[in-house]
C-alpha cells in the first residue's frame, strides 16, 4: 500500500483530507491493524500514552465497521470497497476534500493540546506498516 494523502486548508474554518491510497495487493483480515493514541498537554512534543483500549481489527472487518457506523461519510470516498467484500482487490481509493466528522470523537474526551495517533499494521506477527498522525486540538 502507498498513501499519498495530505491535509489542506479548505476555507477559513475547515481543513480537509485529499489524496489517493494505492492498494497494490489483495487485503483481507489476515492484515491486522492497531491504534495507539498519545497526548501532549503543552503541545511541546512530549507525549504521554492515552490509556484508551481499542481492539485490533482486520482490514475487511475495519472497513465493514466504518461502513456500518458512518455510511454518509463512506459515500464521499471514491472507489472504496463495498460493505462485506473480502478480500479487497487492488485499487486506488480517492479522498477529495473530505472533512473529518466531528461525531467520531466524543467532546468530553478531547482536551486542548497535541495528539499523536500511531497506526501499526501486521501480517501474522510481523509488523509491515507503521505511520503516525499528529493533530492539534483547540478550544472554539
Fold topology:
Layout (H helix, E strand, L loop, with lengths): L1 E8 L5 E9 L7 E10 L7 E2 L7 E2 H11 L1 H4 L2 E2 L12 E8 L14 E11 L2 E12 L3
Distance between the terminal alpha carbons, to the nearest Å? 36 Å
Taken from the alpha-carbon principal axes, the silhouette is globular
Give the number of DSSP strands: 9
Please outline the major beta sheet: 5 strands, antiparallel
Q: Could you tell me the radius of gyration in angstroms?
A: 16 Å
Helical fraction: 10-25%
> What fraction of the residues are assigned to beta strands by DSSP?
over 45%
* Low-pLDDT segments: none
Rounded mean pLDDT is: 88
Order of helices and strands: EEEEEHHEEEE
Helix-strand category: mainly beta
Detailed description of the structure:
- It is built from 2 helices and 9 strands.
- The strands form 2 sheets. Strands 3, 4, 5, 8 and 9 form a 5-stranded antiparallel beta sheet that branches. Strands 1-2-7-6 form a 4-stranded antiparallel beta sheet, with no helix packed on it.
- A hairpin with a 5-residue loop joins strand 1 and strand 2.
- The protein starts with a strand and ends with a strand.
Could you name the key traits of this structure?
140 residues; 2 helices; single chain
